[in-house]
UniProtKB/TrEMBL annotation:
Keyword line: Cell cycle, Cell division, Cell membrane, Membrane, Transmembrane, Transmembrane helix
Keyword Transmembrane in annotation: yes
One Gene Ontology CC term in the entry: plasma membrane
GO BP term (any one): cell division
Transmembrane parts of this sequence: 59-80
Annotated organism of origin: Collinsella tanakaei
Broad class of where this protein is predominantly found: membrane
Membrane topology field: Single-pass type II membrane protein
The protein's name: Cell division protein FtsL
Record's subcellular location: Cell membrane
Lineage, uppermost ranks: Bacteria, Bacillati, Actinomycetota, Coriobacteriia, Coriobacteriales
InterPro entries given in the database record: Cell_div_FtsL (IPR011922)
Lineage top rank: taxon: Bacteria
């Protein structure tokens, strides 16, 4: 029993039986288009355990070696650049330290020449300490032993 042949169809759709009148004809079937024929040929396909061609394997290996070399060269380049920068920083710091030491050495030489000058020492002794220069000197001979002269 089909839907269109029952009273339910009339109750739901409020239409008469579809087999009457213009609606009685079924819609035209769509035309099937011709497709090219597909044939399955057995035995010519690649199996799961079949090996990959040696040329493809060699190309992959060469590509991996080139990538590894590129990576190694990049690491070497960065390492050399960082070592160069560290050396240059160390040299700059050493140069600064040497310049400071040379400046201090120059200042010490000036101070030594100023403080060690005999004229300055004489002026300080005479002016500040009220000392006078010695005019003569006394020489003491200690070569003769006083014990030997007693006997």
């Amino acid at each position: 029993m089909a839907y269109y042949n029952t009273n339910t169809a009339v109750a739901y759709d409020m239409t008469a039986d579809p087999y009457m009148g213009e609606e009685a004809f079924a819609p035209a079937r769509p035309q099937r288009l011709e497709r090219p024929r597909l044939d399955v040929v057995g035995g010519a396909g690649r199996e799961a355990n079949q090996a990959v061609s040696p040329v493809f394997t060699r190309v992959i290996k060469v590509a991996l070696v080139l990538v590894a070399m590129f990576f190694a060269l990049g690491v070497a380049r960065v390492t050399i650049a960082s070592a160069t920068a560290a050396t240059l920083n160390g040299n700059a710091q050493l140069n600064s330290t040497l310049e400071t030491a040379q400046e201090e050495s120059s200042n010490l030489e000036v101070m030594r020449s100023v403080y060690g000058a005999t004229t300055r020492i004489r002026d300080l002794a005479a002016g500040t300490l009220d000392m006078v220069e010695a005019e003569g000197g006394v020489t003491v001979d200690v070569s003769a032993s006083p014990v030997a002269s007693v006997q």
